[in-house]
Structures are given as structure tokens and as C-alpha cells.
């Protein structure tokens, strides 16, 4: 019988198809995060900045940029806090899609969709990563003193 698990020092022991899925989910999360950063920059600086604003709202993308390194390095902790942080972007998108009009409303809708995609990708990534296979036992465990009674 062949061993179909692939040990990885960062990801643990997973079957090859699960490792492929983990890599795909990482690509989706990093891509969605970069897209959300670009959307935030374009929105607040050029496409539909707040009237009379200074563009300081562009700082909202800073937490996303801080997460990129952890997402790219498969840091499970980053995926977990990112899935909580995303609800702030979702909430902003919902608020601005209902209170603003024109470009800003459309961009808020895009922010909502990207937030939901990124949340789902982070959640599935964490669940998939936590399915680490237990180590194989090479021999039967020795009977304990309680088993002798």
C-alpha cells in the first residue's frame, strides 16, 4: 500500500488533491485581497472620492496590505483575523451602497461582492488546512495497567 499523503513543513500532511485545493484557495484569497486594495485606492483617490474630502479614507486599505504577507505565507492566524476584518469592508459597502449614488454606489456593490468572496475563501481555507491527517501508528499501543484489570 502506498502512502498518498504529502508532508509539508508549513501545511502539514495532506493528500495531493487537498494540497492543490489549499494552493488554489491561497491564490483566490491573495487575488481578492489585492483586488480589494486596488478598488479602495481607485475609489477614494480617483473614481468617486467623498465630496470635500481629503482622500484620507484611502487609509482603509492599510490593514489589507498588512495581511498580504501572512496570506502569501500560509499563516493560518492571518486567514482567521482576515475573515473577521472583512466584515468592516462589507459593512462599509452596504452603508455606502444605500446612502450614495452613481459610481460610488456601484463601487460599494463591488466591495460587498469582493468581501463575501474573500470571506468564503478564508473560511474554506481554514477548514481545509485544519483537516490534517493524524500520524500513522506503526505498531499497536502497549496495553495499560487499567486494561489488565
Quick summary of this structure?
The chain contains 5 helices and 2 strands. With 149 residues, the chain is mostly helical. The chain has a two-stranded antiparallel ribbon.
Overview of this protein structure:
This protein has 149 residues and is mainly alpha-helical. It has one domain (12-49, 57-132). It starts with 5 loop residues before the first strand and ends with a helix. It has a two-stranded antiparallel sheet with strand order 1-2. The mean pLDDT is 88. It contains five helices and two strands, in the order E-E-H-H-H-H-H.
Write the layout of secondary structure elements.
Blueprint (H helix, E strand, L loop, with lengths): L5 E3 L3 E3 L1 H32 L14 H11 L3 H24 L3 H27 L15 H4 L1
Helix pairs in contact: 1-2, 1-4, 2-3, 3-4
Content of β-strand: under 5%
**pLDDT under 50 segments (min length 5)?**
none
CA radius of gyration is 22 Å
Write down the overall geometry.
elongated
Tally of strands? 2
Structural class: mainly alpha
How many helices does DSSP assign? 5
Amino acid at each position: 500500500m502506498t502512502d498518498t499523503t504529502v508532508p509539508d513543513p508549513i501545511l502539514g500532511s495532506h493528500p495531493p488533491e487537498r494540497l492543490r485545493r489549499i494552493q488554489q484557495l491561497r491564490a483566490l484569497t491573495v487575488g481578492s485581497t489585492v483586488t480589494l486594495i486596488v478598488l479602495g485606492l481607485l475609489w477614494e483617490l480617483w473614481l468617486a472620492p467623498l465630496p470635500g474630502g481629503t482622500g484620507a479614507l484611502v487609509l482603509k486599505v492599510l490593514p489589507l496590505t498588512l495581511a498580504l504577507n501572512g496570506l502569501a505565507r500560509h499563516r493560518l492566524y492571518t486567514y482567521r483575523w482576515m475573515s473577521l476584518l472583512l466584515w468592516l469592508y462589507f459593512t462599509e459597502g452596504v452603508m455606502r451602497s444605500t446612502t450614495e449614488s452613481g459610481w460610488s454606489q456601484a463601487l460599494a456593490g463591488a466591495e460587498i461582492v469582493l468581501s463575501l468572496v474573500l470571506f468564503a475563501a478564508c473560511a474554506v481555507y481554514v477548514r481545509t488546512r485544519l483537516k490534517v491527517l493524524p500520524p500513522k501508528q506503526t505498531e499497536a499501543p502497549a496495553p495499560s495497567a487499567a486494561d489488565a484489570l
